[in-house]
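Have a close read of this protein, sequence plus structure tokens, and explain what the tokens say about the fold. Thanks in advance:
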Amino acid sequence: MALETQLIAVARPLWAGRTKAYFAALSEALGQTVTREERPIGRRDIAFHEGRDALAAQGRSADGRVRVRVRGMRDWDVRLQPGTLRTLTEPECADRVREPAHDLIQDQFRKLSRLRQEVYGPSYRI
């Protein structure tokens, strides 16, 4: 479906913008320019980076009409239940897209937290 493809095309630059904003905030907090992550050092860092790159997250709208999935925050998939565009107004459709996007980010954070605990141990703190 064309809208699904368009939503995927929007997700990629939104995530890139979020990453750019993250590094800008980190640069400000540290008082030095940070434009990318440091290279992983040691087996645990490598394991974390590999796990994060393979991490799959997903979200759904409350009514189940819209589903968003991503792997490694690179490979996006958006699915709309057939008939969604015919039965919802534009604002309702926008709400249905926001719901799974929020749910996906929460799922990603939960899974990243678990991955950190698995790789670095239960006492690891960000």
Q: What stands out?
A: Residues 18 and 122 are 28 Å apart (CA to CA).
